[in-house]
Design a protein that fits this description.
The structure is a single chain. The chain is α/β, with parallel strands linked by helices and 353 residues long. It has helices at 12-23, 69-82, 99-111, 128-136, 162-180, 197-211, 227-240, 252-265, 279-287, 301-314, 343-346, and strands spanning 57-62, 88-92, 116-119, 141-144, 156-159, 187-191, 219-222, 246-249, 271-276, 292-297, 330-332, 337-338. The strands form two sheets. The chain has a six-stranded parallel beta sheet, sandwiched between helices. InterPro entries: Peripla_BP_I (IPR028082), SBP_2_dom (IPR025997), TAT_signal (IPR006311).
């Protein structure tokens, strides 16, 4: 998400597990054994080294204020992962939604000469220059989620796949409607903030996936990523459509309000897909008695992984599952679909809205 909108959260325990999914097997870059034949594939780096104590590093961290469950979990995950390492000093600055205050906070980290900086900007464009100053000062920046427009302003970017969220939701809905033999379905979409590129990417992915089944969105309306706006928008759409076949809500935080409106209206003729992967959404799915059947992930485990990547970069190490000696320049996390069949696997990673 490359915008200054507070986003969703994650349980502390999920920080450790989720981060491990990406970089748990990272190792030091000791020379691998030479292949016995010129035709052999390159040998992987030796395993088991990177989680052992190494060069001491200080990781600076800055993120927006925790005005949503998702963004609250970003900070929790980052801190929890940093505490796993005896060689890491974690130096967070006060979270804020004020652009100028965040710029000042990052400047203070530059002045402290931290070894590496993990930065989730309120706005990637407006914090681009201060991130560039960090890079010019020799401090690698791990750009988390909301991307800086200038690639010279960050060493590595890690974030979610907004387009992929829409694709995952569209495939779930399209496949289920086809299986049920529904023709000309009424498909409703509740967005976040329509003017944001992240929202537009989600909607485009959704439309593209639906198109492959011969379907399209009947009606869509934007909310504001809050419970209150979720309730209001869902109520309006329910009143406007006496029959709905499927509904995709972009965000599980505002989904609390969407579900409240649905229950208040007594509607259950359709099924619903959520977005982000909150714990309350997973519990609804697990119950088997809700219209909410699935949610597609945009996981704040990315903060845990960002800390792990920052540590490796500061220690001049790479990732053991890759042949290359250095951490990649960008990593896009997949959007996964959570249903009743696999919800128990994901529930420990859910964040509270």
């Amino acid at each position: 998400m490359s915008e200054k909108v507070g986003r969703r959260g994650f349980l502390l325990g999920g920080a450790v597990v989720g981060a491990g999914a990406l970089v748990s097997a990272c190792t030091s870059n000791e020379p691998a054994a030479q292949p016995s034949s010129p035709a052999s594939a390159p040998a992987a780096a030796a395993s088991g080294g990177n989680d052992q104590p190494g060069q001491k590093v200080t990781i600076g961290f800055s993120a927006p204020a925790a005005d949503h469950g998702w963004i609250a979990a970003i900070a929790k995950n980052a801190e929890a992962t940093a505490k796993q390492y005896s060689d890491v000093t974690f130096t967070p600055v006060e979270p804020t939604n004020d652009i100028n205050q965040q710029i000042s906070a990052v400047e203070s980290l530059i002045q402290q000469k931290v070894n590496v900086l993990v930065l989730l900007p309120n706005d990637g464009e407006q914090l681009n220059q201060v991130a560039r100053r960090a890079m010019d000062a020799g401090i690698p920046v791990v750009n988390l989620d909301r991307i800086f427009p200038d690639k010279l302003s960050y060493r590595t970017w890690i974030g979610g796949d907004n387009y992929g969220m829409g694709v995952a939701a569209g495939h779930y809905i399209g496949a289920k409607l086809k299986e049920k033999g529904v023709s000309n379905p009424v498909i409703v979409e509740i967005q976040g903030i329509a003017t944001l590129p992240l929202t537009q990417d989600r909607s485009k992915g959704f439309a593209d996936a639906l198109k492959s089944y011969g379907f399209s969105v009947t009606a869509k309306q934007d909310a504001q990523f809050t419970v209150e706006t979720g309730t209001e928008v869902a109520s309006n759409l329910l009143q406007a459509h006496s029959k709905i076949d499927a509904l995709w809500n972009h965000d599980d935080d505002q989904g609390v309000g969407v579900l409240a409106a649905i229950k208040e209206a007594g509607r259950n003729e359709f099924f619903m897909v959520g977005g982000a992967g909150s714990a309350n959404a997973m519990r609804e799915i697990q119950s088997g008695s809700s219209v909410l059947e699935a949610t597609v992930t945009y996981s704040p485990t990315m903060a845990s992984s960002a800390i792990k990547l920052a540590r490796l970069i500061a220690q001049n190490k790479g990732m053991s599952d890759l042949v290359e000696n250095q951490v990649p320049q960008s990593i896009t996390l997949a959007s996964e679909t959570i249903t009743k069949e696999n919800v128990e696997q994901y529930l420990p990673l859910g964040f509270e809205s």
